[in-house]
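re: the backbone from monday

yeah here it is again, tokenized this time
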């Protein structure tokens, strides 16, 4: 008994030593991954996991890169039986140094997106929790442009969305899996009417319903498009410009006294007669003077593959998987700026 007691201080010291070593190693490993995962700001918005290789070719100019890249991708209720496909996507993303920003979605009912119920919210989060992610931080967006009735079951209901946002955020945080919560981006150009609600009117109504709602988010999410008509010069300023995120960040500062980081998960021009010849200079200006803003973490222009379909004018690859005017303009701008 006496001999065993005499050994206890030594064993205690030894255990403390190895605990300290393990803690330091884990901290270094975790910090290293976080530093790597910051990566370059510019990414791309995709719609399907199989688009990963095409996305990395666009963003790396076809060369190997040590920097991490960001991709925005939707996950719908229709994906919940595709665990193998999504795990393969995440595994390949880690090898390719790609950080996914996963936007939650329900399913289309006619021309509107279904309002999620709690069972569906839990199903989406359970699916994401079981996957091995490429990085320690797991970025998720809680639905999309909910100031459009078509994005919320045909209705505009800021109080209901605030409730869904808070519930999903609380559930995600309870998982202990390092989820990073982004809200649905607003359509900053939407007017007040039966089909849409002006963005800051919507946000104010969310606050009226729940004065603490912005505590449910970690990073802001913005759709800062060059309006009107997705065709304006990048030098324009204000809510409906490429700098719309600045108006949002100022609003958040006034309401919360916090300086949020921001992901711009949709942005970009359509190709038409007034934009086509200027796209390279537009992207160059955006890279140098807008997307270099210190609070921007990632920018994922919309959309890698939108052809055929309603997003053909935005697409970077056509229906034959060939580079479009958008693709070539962005790559030339990246090469010029040195991104």
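seq for it, each position gets an aa:
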């Amino acid at each position: 008994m006496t001999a065993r007691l005499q050994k206890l201080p030594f064993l205690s010291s030894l255990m403390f030593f190895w605990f300290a070593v393990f803690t330091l190693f884990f901290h270094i490993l975790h910090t290293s991954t976080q530093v790597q995962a910051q990566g370059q700001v510019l990414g791309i918005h995709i719609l399907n996991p199989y688009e990963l290789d095409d996305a990395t070719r666009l963003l790396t100019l076809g060369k190997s890169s040590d920097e991490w890249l960001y991709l925005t991708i939707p996950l719908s209720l229709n994906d919940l039986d595709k665990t193998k496909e999504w795990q393969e996507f995440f595994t390949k993303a880690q090898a390719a140094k790609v950080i996914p920003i996963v936007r939650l979605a329900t399913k289309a009912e006619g021309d509107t997106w279904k309002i999620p119920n709690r069972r569906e919210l839990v199903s989406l989060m359970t699916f994401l929790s079981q996957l091995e992610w490429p990085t320690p931080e797991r970025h998720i967006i809680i639905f999309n442009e909910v100031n459009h009735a078509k994005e919320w079951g045909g209705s505009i209901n800021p109080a209901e969305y605030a409730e869904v946002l808070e519930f999903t955020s609380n559930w995600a945080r309870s998982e202990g899996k390092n989820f990073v919560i982004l809200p649905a981006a607003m359509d900053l150009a939407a007017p007040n009417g039966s089909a849409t609600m002006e963005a800051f009117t919507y946000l104010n109504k969310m606050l009226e319903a729940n004065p603490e709602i912005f505590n449910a988010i970690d990073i802001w999410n913005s759709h800062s498009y060059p309006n009107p008509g997705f065709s304006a010069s990048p030098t324009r300023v204000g809510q409906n410009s490429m700098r719309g995120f600045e108006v949002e960040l100022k609003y958040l500062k006034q309401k919360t006294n916090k300086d949020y980081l921001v992901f711009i998960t949709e942005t970009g021009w359509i190709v038409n007669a007034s934009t086509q010849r200027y796209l390279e200079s537009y992207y160059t200006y955006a890279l140098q003077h807008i997307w270099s803003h210190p609070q921007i973490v990632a920018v994922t222009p919309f959309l890698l593959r939108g052809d055929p379909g309603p997003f053909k004018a935005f697409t970077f690859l056509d229906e034959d998987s060939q580079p479009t005017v958008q693709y070539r303009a962005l790559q030339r701008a990246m090469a010029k700026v040195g991104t």
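Strands lie at 44-45, 69-75, 98-104, 108-109, 112-113, 138-142, 179-183, 220-223, 262-266, 296-299. Residues 83 and 190 are 36 Å apart (CA to CA).
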